[in-house]
Amino acid sequence: MIEDPSRLAAMRALPSIEGIEAQTVRKQQSAFCILTLFVIAGLLLLHAVFAPLLGEPSKGVVLILAFAFLIKAWEVLWLQGMRDGIPLKTARIETAISMAGLFLLAGFLAFLTNRDDAPYFVVLAIPILQSAYQFGLLPTIATIVAAIAMMFAWNQHYFRIHPPARPSEYLETGMIAVIFCLAGPLVWFLVNQLREREASLYRKMRELALAREKLAAEEKLAAVGRFASGIAHEIRNPVAMISSSLATAAYPAIDSAERDEMFAIALRESRRLENLTTDFLTYARPSTPQRSVVSIRDVARHVADVTRLRAAGTSIAVACSATPEIYANVDGSQIEGALLNLSLNALDATPSGGKIELRLAAADGMVLLEVANSGKAIPDAHFERVFEPFFTTKAGGTGLGLAIARGIAVAHGGDLWVSENADGAVAFTMTFKMNLVEEFSEEALHGKDPGDR
Questions:
Q1: Is the pLDDT of residue 375 over 80?
Q2: How far apart are CA 440 and CA 453, in angstroms?
Q3: Checking phi first, is residue 353 left (phi over 0); if not, alpha (psi -120 to 50) or beta?
Q4: How far is CA 310 from CA 134, 332, 418, in A?
Q5: How does pLDDT run across 405-420, given as a tens digit for each residue?
Q6: For strand 415-422 and strand 425-433, is the pairing parallel, antiparallel, or unpaired?
Q7: How many CB atoms lie within 10 A of CB 187?
Q8: For residue 428, how far is the Cα from the chain centroid?
Q9: Is residue 263 a contact partner of residue 245, using CB atoms and an 8 Å limit?
Q10: pLDDT for residue 448 is more than 70
Q11: How far, in Å, CA of 324 to CA of 361, rounded?
């Protein structure tokens, strides 16, 4: 069976359930270790505070608690180092070792303190919670039974050595046993419910990702369809003109002057078709920038000069306020072409007597080039489509110029957008990264090869 590519892409976009589970398990293990640290520190503090009642903690008690504290602290550091999470199998082995260690800790401390109401049995609550989190209901019940059996066994051992037995101590142990019996299954039930909800949420996330991927694929196909339609429409007109002109020129009765005119039309339309094909290939397969250190101010001034020549006789003023000397490691010809496209578009949109201004600035490692004109605002109906391929309002335009310019800006780590849109003030802003590195010397910045140093 062949998998749907969009489905596979959506699956890869989501983290795996194993990865999520590994991270969740790591957090749970860390939480239990920190809880154990607090319990150990709290018990030692309580033993010291209530020394008149419990007696001064012996060196053995202090050493065992300190050793357990260090072991758990090391475990916390180890868990924090597992950035990719912990596999469930590893976590269960670690949990089983931790539970056994806490049982041994409670037993050793009970023997060392040698009291009928040994307070250190409270640490047995942690193995019960760990079992409820990591194992099923039956292991949780088995852990509870083991904890209760250990407490009653201690009572029996103590009163055999220190008779007579006091029923109140058995009653106190029974009350703790009831709490364990309630807490363990309740925690297991809540954790089980939470895991079921997490699994359901993950399934819904996967379904949403698949639906979104499918929608994106459909939108891409629709865009390809519009693109193909635009190409067909743009090619059809010059081809039809060429065909009609050549067919007319082939009539025997046509005179030589009219035949030459038909050939001229066919030649003009063929060149138009060639330009369209060139623009299309530039847009569809943009070339990789051939980077070198370029003076952006010189590029802006050159484009302003070319625009000024094109504007001759139109009373349109062209100004360049590119005063700062800014260098960038870019493809100079591509940047110049994109900026010239913006300037010529501004020239077409500016009425006689208007003004075009090229502005240059730099900030945070980015170069900003703005082309402003005093023409009318872009209509709302056209504003959202100005960068759409084949969209144009100019007679004879291909509608690829702005799309190509934006592609050049993006290829250089920047973007192109309409930064101002009002009657008398329309501006396009292009940004791109400087990409300068420290090894470029002053000689390199002024046109010399850094390798010649």
A1: yes
A2: 11
A3: left
A4: 77, 21, 23
A5: 888 898 899 999 999 9
A6: antiparallel
A7: 17
A8: 28
A9: yes
A10: no
A11: 7
Specify which residues 358 forms β-bridges with.
320, 371
pLDDT at 295 over 80: yes
Which residue is it, tokens 């209530």? 50
* Cβ pair 29, 76 in contact under 8 A: no
Domain parsing of the chain, residue ranges? 5-209, 233-284, 292-452
Q: What's phi and psi for 327, nearest 5 deg?
A: -110, 150
| pLDDT tens readout for residues 308-362 | 988 887 889 999 986 678 899 999 989 998 999 899 889 988 998 899 999 999 8
Report, in angstroms and rounded to the nearest whole number, the Rg of the chain calculated over CA atoms: 40
Binned at pLDDT 50, 70 and 90, residue 136 comes out as confident
* Chain centroid, CA 363 distance in Å: 24
Residue that is written with structure tokens 């250990």 in the block: 150
**According to CATH, what is the number of the domain 233-284?**
1.10.287
Residue type, 213: E
Q: What is the pTM of this model?
A: 0.47
Encoded tokens for 235 = 């090619």
Measured from the Cβ of residue 339, the count of other Cβ atoms closer than 10 Å reads 27
Strand order in the sheet with 366-373: 317-320, 355-363, 366-373, 425-433, 415-422
Classify domain 292-452 by CATH architecture: 2-Layer Sandwich (3.30)
Instruction: Say if residue 450 is preceded by a cis peptide, omega within 30 of 0.
Output: no
Mention every residue, 6+ apart, whose C-beta is less than 8 A from residue 299. 332, 335, 336, 339
pLDDT at 4 over 50: no
Asked if the model's pLDDT at residue 451 lies above 60, the reply is no
For 430, list phi and psi in degrees, rounded to 5.
Answer: -115, 135
343, 417 in Cβ contact below 8 A? no
The percentage of residues in the chain with a pLDDT greater than 70, rounded to a whole number, is 83
Interhelix angle 167-249/5-13, rounded to 10 degrees, is 140
